Amino acid sequence: MKIGFDAKRVFHNDTGLGNYSRDTVRLLSTHYTENNYILYNPKPGRIAFKPPSDNTHVRYPDSFFHRHVSSYWRYRLMVSQLVKDRIDIYFGLSNELPKGIEKTGIPSLVTIHDLIFLRYPHYYKPIDRMIYKHKFHNACLNARKIIAISEQTKNDIIHFFKIPEHKIKVIYQGCHEWFQKPPSVDLHNKIRKKYNLPNRYILNVGRIEERKNTLSLIRAIQPIGDARLVIVGRKTSYMDKIENDIEKYGLRNRVQIFDRITMHELPAFYQMADIFVYPSFFEGFGIPIVEALFSKTPVISSTGSCFSEAGGPDSRYVSPEDTPALTSTIRELWNDASLREKMAQNGYDYASKFKDTAVARELYSTIESLT
């Protein structure tokens, strides 16, 4: 079988959608080697992704003109290339399908990650909301099957787009293979020294923006005098509010913020942390929670949304609006090593459902259902 992928995010995005796209290609190409996997990339990107197997190939626009209108090629012109390449299945990895795919006879599959732009429109510009709604809705209508990365996303697709439930399959997202490997003491020591990390700390990972609710976390640790906070995430204009609160509450020596940490180094940040806190208001899934579970780090996250799907029954959940409750929960875990150890082990056991073999099997059975 020849399976084509929308590979833009594979080569052009180094965070959430890119990680999902690269992991999906890796899982399918290494677990189901009998197929050919074609990565349709509109133009060379900044991510040095090397296809993991000889059965995986990168395809660019096949004409001079198409290479110079790469965005339009991806949106509309690529379908002719899919037909010429005799693709058996087309997989849209990041919320989109090329226009006209439904007329080619090629069965298509699309992953919808979230509809946050409809549930929380104030976080998005009007023009972005309009574009996303058009693309996502059309993808849901024209795909033979839709993968939702959580029950929350599935429910949103049904609610906002009126898509029948039988067309949607929930397949949880896995995480990068490096998080699933045993920790290295030598690497821990190097990372701690390189970044001057404290012996004990609370970790938060994710883009530093309003929806992630980082301000509540900073305010929550303030009364816990010996607590240190390490934040890893891409900075946005929201950083101005973060910096103001750090100064206001006298936390300059208790909060460290790192804008870019390599994927090779990031697992060590998780593994050395005492607690991982993810107080976001809403997510499509919450992959940092799964990364923490694999790292045997106890998790505190938010009530509502998809967080209990990612974190399981042994993580703690607090309303993202209730900063005093977050303080209380952090303090309880911070001061109780045996509780942290119990939560860490139970969380790691729960994370088995996100292991490579389980996710690959679910993905491939869905692809096979289209043939």
Give structural notes:
The protein is built from 16 helices and 13 strands. By secondary structure, it is an alpha/beta fold. It has two domains: 2-173 and 355-368, Glycogen Phosphorylase B (Rossmann fold, 3-Layer(aba) Sandwich); 177-353, Glycogen Phosphorylase B (Rossmann fold, 3-Layer(aba) Sandwich), CATH 3.40.50. The radius of gyration is 21 Å and the shape is globular. The mean pLDDT is 94.
List the main descriptive attributes of the protein structure presented here.
371 residues; alpha/beta; Rossmann fold; 2 domains; 6-stranded parallel beta sheet; 16 helices; 13 strands; globular
Layout of SSEs?
Layout: E1 2-6, H1 8-12, H2 16-31, E2 36-40, E3 56-59, H3 64-67, H4 70-84, E4 89-92, E5 108-112, H5 116-119, H6 126-142, E6 145-148, H7 151-161, E7 168-170, H8 185-195, E8 202-205, H9 214-221, E9 229-232, H10 239-248, E10 255-258, H11 266-272, E11 275-278, H12 287-294, E12 299-302, H13 307-311, E13 316-318, H14 323-334, H15 337-350, H16 356-368
Parallel strand pairs: 1-2, 1-4, 2-3, 4-5, 5-6, 6-7, 8-9, 8-11, 9-10, 11-12, 12-13
Helix pairs in contact: 2-16, 8-11, 9-10, 9-14
